[in-house]
Design a protein that fits this description.
The complex is a heterotrimer of chains A (279), B (332) and C (253). Chain B is α/β, with parallel strands linked by helices and 332 residues long. Chain B is built from ten helices and eleven strands. Chain B is globular and about 65 Å long. In chain C, 37% of the residues lie in helices and 23% in strands. Chains A and C meet through helix 7 and helix 8 of A and helix 2, strand 6, helix 3 and helix 5 of C. Chain B: One of its GO terms (cellular component) is plasma membrane.
């Protein structure tokens, strides 16, 4: 109850309320959208190609006669599932390295963090591009590429947050009690680091989603006919003059999703950031 | 110790009547109805716990508090009225000339990247213009530094603040405050960040300067015992209200306001034993507590119903001794 | 109970880092069972480092520390853990010394979970409630989080947390310094009651001469990492022999 009431007090403007509603709606559609689709998103029907939005095909059809709305709904699941897969793996790997680094300290800590620094020196998209082209172009390759290039962000952030927590007096109190390390991580570090990590995750959702769509768009990610949003735009490029809806629908979907999660992330930052709030 | 007796003949140097201070956001009144007068050459103390409003009141009166303003009442300094409208700007002009200010934190109140000598000569220049030329201003600054007890002032003149200890830095802040030859020095917890030995030296320096140069001093502190031994009269703030103005000699001797009495019973002093220490139950209320009546009613041992319903008596005549207790405790 | 003999500690000098704590030189401190011993010194005197050495929160480079007659250097891992239930500490800063994400009952129960695994959950809760009551907090306080409490109340929680394991030695590291005057007196009264009612040995670390005079039987005066004077509090704090102690006493209001 306490948590729910606190969450409900977060949104302060209508923009934020809208973003939350849209964010939830997108997540919901990603979950159940595949059961609502009017047409098979993969079914090619050249007789129905390049049809403008109508009562039958609400968002029209693409160059191969596939229903754009159906593909969009299927794509929501594909795009968001890939995004969350990347985020979850990256958070687990990054935070494990970061927290361990802060606990161990000394030379190991220094080495790991310099490694992360060097890693971050490469632009993530370029790194992902190289990685994806080495693995061969597919959605899985794009996901691995992003995991590969994204983890240092979380390693550095979680190390910084953990080091900050470890320097506080309540950790000294815990040491005076003889609290073992695993308990310190679970009961002291993670609950106190949660806010900062959540903010970063919320902000990264849109960034990772854009990266996946971007990689698909330039052809190293998901391949047509997979209904991934970035790939759908890439596919629709050649029909812009006579089938504008084909690129517009996934474009708007990407735009709305990215903006919604960014607004939510900014809101979380404002509400949860320890620097803007006295403990 | 002769200077501790409150001078009674002079006209007040600073007189504030029924002054209230409110926050800019939400217009919440934080300090209400404070009236008091400080006379020339007087050493005056303001005591209060955290949240009493002592720092907010003085900083707002000096025009230094950006998020608060003087919401009502009247302020007179040195025979000049300061209107409530546009108060902060007026007050800040005085701050450059007739009022010196020593803030709490000696570590952040000096410019770390400017040589000490430059900071002091600049203060002299800002207060007096440049009538005496660079060389004599430099001499004046070194003289000031010697006066506040900085060893080898000519050498320190060219050094940076971080080469000195907290006590030395507070002396430098003090020198800057004195550069304008003010009539009034306001020191807000000037020694809280310092060690005991340094603390006493800095306080004695301030008192010494006051005696020698006819300087009035308002010393703000949470330390009642320090004030009791250093100043003539003490104003006691609690929950944004002025509860008591008491001659320091009366504390622990005659009847005073119940809060002042309770506060004195809390503090360990040289003479007290454990049996003499009596804590006040409950927590201090913050400034702007927004209730009717006396802020101390919730913790006062003498409390009656009327304490919570009657408006607090005001020190309307800016009398030199005052108690806001409606039961007449400490009222002369 | 506590016997520090010739304990020394030096801090590695690091470039561009100002180290405010002094190195310790030849510290000899002995605390007997049931004593209330004060360690008096100004900031940078090394008194907090001594507190951390006594509670084994920090290491030392020279000398020896015997606790109840045994050198702690000879402790096994198990004994080291058991030591933590014999010696507890309360810090100065009541804002930082409680886990912000644990309820105050949770903080108190943490001690019991670690050191009294024989107790059931219900017993732990009951014991935590009794402890919170003992330090003067109301029954419903347990479910709330540290940020909902004032500094004085948090310090009460920190005290309850420290005495939950029924330590024989309690180290109080400037426990009053960041509290309001009227709250200081409340906590001081709590200490006096605790000393009377519980079988406690206390090391009280403070810069406040007057509080040490009130509370302590014996006192060690520290300056710049060394003990400069020791003796019964009433002797040392009324007739100091050391020049520094005399200056300190003269300066105190």
């Amino acid at each position: 109850m306490r948590v729910l009431r606190r969450l409900l007090s977060f949104p302060k403007t209508n923009v934020e309320r809208t973003a939350i509603v849209l964010g939830c709606l997108i997540l919901l559609l990603a979950l159940v959208g595949a059961f609502l689709v009017p047409f098979d998103p993969m079914k090619i029907d050249f007789r129905a190609k390049l049809q403008a939005p109508s009562m039958l095909h609400w968002l029209g059809t693409d160059g191969s006669g596939r229903d754009v709305l159906s593909r969009l709904l299927y794509g929501a699941r594909l795009t968001l599932a890939s995004t969350f897969a990347v985020i979850i793996v990256v958070v687990i790997i990054g935070c494990t390295i970061g927290i361990a680094s802060a606990f161990v300290g000394g030379a190991v800590d220094n080495m790991l963090m310099r490694l992360a620094d060097i890693w971050l020196g490469f632009p993530p998209l370029i790194l992902a591009l190289g990685f994806a082209s080495a693995l061969g172009a597919s959605l899985e390759a794009a996901i691995w590429a992003l995991i590969f290039s994204w983890w240092p962000n979380y390693a550095r952030l979680s190390r910084m947050v953990t080091a900050d927590i470890l320097s506080q007096k309540f950790i000294a109190s815990a040491d005076a009690l003889g609290v073992p390390t695993h308990r310190k991580v679970l009961h002291y570090v993670i609950p106190n680091a949660m806010d900062v990590m959540l903010i970063q995750i919320a902000l990264d959702i849109s960034a990772v989603m854009l990266a996946i769509s971007g990689l698909s768009f330039i052809g190293v990610g998901a391949q047509i006919p997979a209904p991934e949003w970035g790939a759908m735009i890439a596919d629709g490029r050649s029909y812009v003059s006579n089938g504008w809806w084909i690129v517009l629908a996934p474009g708007i979907a990407i735009f709305i999703t990215a903006v919604s999660f960014n607004v939510i992330g900014d809101m979380l930052r404002r509400e949860l950031d320890p620097t803007s709030r006295r403990r | 110790m002769a200077s501790l007796a409150p001078p009674t003949t002079d006209r007040p140097l600073l007189e504030i009547r029924d002054v209230s201070v409110a926050l800019r956001t939400g217009n919440r009144t934080m300090v209400a109805g404070v009236s008091l007068a400080v006379r020339p050459r007087e050493v005056f103390g303001i005591v209060g716990e955290s949240g009493s409003g002592k720092t907010l009141l003085t900083r707002t009166l000096l025009g230094l508090q950006d998020d608060a303003y003087v919401a009502g009442g009247s302020v007179r300094f040195n025979g000049q009225d300061l209107p409530v409208n546009g108060y902060a700007n007026k007050a800040r002009k005085l701050l450059g000339h007739s009022i010196g200010f020593v803030p709490q934190d000696p570590f952040s109140s000096l410019n770390p990247s400017m040589r000490i000598g430059k900071q002091i000569t600049e203060a002299i220049y800002l207060a007096k213009g440049w009538p005496m030329g660079a060389e004599r201003t430099r001499e004046a600054a070194i003289g000031l530094m010697a006066e506040v007890g900085i060893p080898e002032p000519a050498l320190a003149f060219n050094q940076f603040p971080d080469q000195f200890s907290g006590g030395m830095r507070q002396r430098m802040v003090f020198a800057i405050a004195l550069a304008q030859d003010p009539k009034l020095l306001v020191a807000d917890e000037p020694t809280t960040a310092l060690d005991a030995i340094t603390q006493r030296r800095v306080i004695e320096l301030i008192l010494d300067r006051s005696r020698k140069h006819d300087l009035a001093v308002i010393l703000i502190s949470h330390n009642l015992e320090l004030l009791r031994q250093s100043v003539g009269r003490i104003a006691v703030l609690y929950g944004g209200q002025l509860l008591n103005i008491v001659p320091s000699g009366d504390i622990g001797q005659s009847t005073i306001h119940p809060y002042t009495e309770a506060l004195f019973d809390c503090i360990p002093t040289r003479e007290k034993t454990l049996a003499d220490i009596r804590s006040i139950p409950g927590e201090p209320v913050g400034a702007g507590f927004g209730l009717k009546g006396c802020a101390f009613a919730s913790r006062c041992p003498y409390v009656v119903t009327a304490c919570r319903t009657t408006d607090l008596p005001q020190n309307a005549g800016t009398a030199s001794i005052f108690s806001a207790c409606i039961l007449g405790r400490g009222v002369h | 109970m506590v016997e520090l003999k010739g304990v020394a500690k030096s801090f590695a000098r690091r470039l561009f880092v100002q180290n405010r704590s002094f190195a310790l030189r030849d510290i000899n401190i002995a605390v007997g069972r049931g004593e209330v011993v004060g360690i008096l010194g100004e900031s940078g005197s090394g008194k907090s480092t001594v507190a951390n050495i006594i509670t084994c929160l920090t290491s030392y480079d020279g000398g020896s520390y015997r606790f109840k007659g045994r050198d702690i250097a000879s402790y096994t891992r198990k004994e080291r853990f058991a030591f933590k239930s014999d010696v507890q500490i309360v810090f100065q800063d009541p804002y930082g010394s409680l886990n912000p994400r644990a309820t105050v009952r949770g903080s108190v129960m943490e001690s019991l979970i670690l050191h009294r695994p024989d107790l059931g959950r219900r017993e732990r809760i009951e014991r935590a409630n009794a402890l919170l009551e003992e330090v003067g907090l109301s029954a419903d306080a347990g479910d709330r989080y540290p940020h909902e409490f004032s500094g004085g109340q948090r310090q009460r929680v920190a005290i309850a947390r420290a005495i939950a394991v029924e330590p024989e030695l309690l180290v109080l590291d400037e426990p009053l310094s960041s509290l309001d005057v009227s709250i200081q007196a409340q906590i001081l009264e709590l200490f006096v009651r605790m000393i009377r009612e519980r079988d406690l040995t206390i090391v009280f670390i403070s810069h406040d001469v007057n509080v040490v005079r009130l509370l302590c039987d014996r006192v060690y005066v520290m300056n710049q990492g060394a003990v400069v004077e020791e003796g019964f509090a009433r002797d040392v704090l009324n007739h100091p022999q050391n020049e520094y102690t005399a200056r300190l006493l003269d300066a105190v209001y």
